[in-house]
TrEMBL record:
A Pfam entry, by short name: GARS_A
Underlying gene: purD
UniProt-listed InterPro entries: ATP-grasp, ATP_grasp_subdomain_1, PreATP-grasp_dom_sf, PRibGlycinamid_synth_ATP-grasp, PRibGlycinamide_synth, PRibGlycinamide_synth_C-dom, PRibGlycinamide_synth_C_sf, PRibGlycinamide_synth_CS
MF terms in GO: phosphoribosylamine-glycine ligase activity
The protein's name in its UniProt record: Phosphoribosylamine--glycine ligase
Domain of life (superkingdom): Bacteria
Entry's EC annotation: 6.3.4.13
Pathway field: Purine metabolism; IMP biosynthesis via de novo pathway; N(1)-(5-phospho-D-ribosyl)glycinamide from 5-phospho-alpha-D-ribose 1-diphosphate: step 2/2
Organism: Kocuria carniphila
Classification lineage: Bacteria, Bacillati, Actinomycetota, Actinomycetes, Micrococcales
Family: Belongs to the GARS family.
ATP-grasp domain location: 107-307
Cofactor requirement: Mn(2+); Mg(2+)
Amino acid sequence: MKVLVVGPGGREHAIIKSLLADPKVSEVHAAPGNAGIAQDVPVHAVNAQDPEAVTELARQLHADLVVVGPEAPLVAGVGDALRAAGFPVFGPSKDAAHIEGSKAFAKEIMSAANVPTARAVATSDMADVREALTEFGAPHVVKDDGLAAGKGVVVTDERDRAEAHARECIEAGGAVVIEEFLDGPEVSLFVITDGERVVPLIPAQDFKRVRDNDQGPNTGGMGAYTPLGWLPEGFTHEVVERVARPVVNELRRRGAPFVGVLYCGLAVTKRGVQVIEFNARFGDPETQSVLAMLESPLGELMLDAAQGRLSEDRALQWKPGASVTVVLAAQNYPGAPRKGDVITGLEQVGTVDETHVIHAGTATNDAGEVVSAGGRVLAVVSHGADLNEARERGYRGMEVISLPGAHYRSDIALAAAEGRITFPTTAEEQA
């Protein structure tokens, strides 16, 4: 099977590494890829958001499967163009991807499917914004309604900052969603679906804030780990039955079957599991750790989803132990990141047991050196017998990499490794 992976980032690099490990996958190509992906597979300089260009490349390659990685190409209809040309596609249609493209639409779907989620108000009127902020109280949650690469959400106790973010989104020609704050630890669960049947992967947790102890502004994600030993028994089954399956069924009922991976962003609150958001693709950086644990062939799983033949009793195989992913970010990220600096030490990471590098915002300069080309530059992904060993290996791998001004969090998976994850309790439980 020949597979084309569309996208330039860490999520796509992780997918490609897993595809290369599938014995049924004979060839993998990427468009446009990055410096690390180019070391593993042929890359093609194609605009990932151009449906016609991507479809023409798939024709030239005679691709047996096309995997569309990021959200922007999905919302732009790349999957639709490929399907119309007869290619099996892992990735939803433009209509189905709207569940990520519009948070207001996601709320509408959840309401119709009776999925538990925070109360919310979608609006482009500042008077409504102020009323909702008062009704829900602090901490204030303000979300850009459209795509924002994981950085369109502000959670703050400061009323002025909440209003300012809402105003920026509205003045940019968009809308905002004001939500009530969901307490409790957050969980990411990826569900593979063919539009009708669903197969869950293992839950993961990511770290949105830029600095240790969840300080600083939101980012696209500074690290992740899996598995989550602190989750209650039956958690994944509950999410499939109460969240993923009802949403997949509702989208199919509306004539927009969702084919690909549905990312369920969840909070374990005192009212039970609540949905924070949906994404129409794998989350980054959780994908790096989840796929590092997957032993079942990924290409076969994706092709079955693309061709509508998933089996819900399919038992996926997972490595024992744990995986930790630590993201290295460029100077000034999540603001305007510094680019073009040479990255050294990448070859030495492989000398640490069960540890590898996933490239995200990287490129190659005229001298053939790998340089920074984005905010989140790369990730070190490690595996160990438990979280402690995986953490130790991951940070040992990170220490050999050098990039001027770069930064990373030192506490990825630390609270879980030390057994410090707690759940919010109700007043009755406290009594």
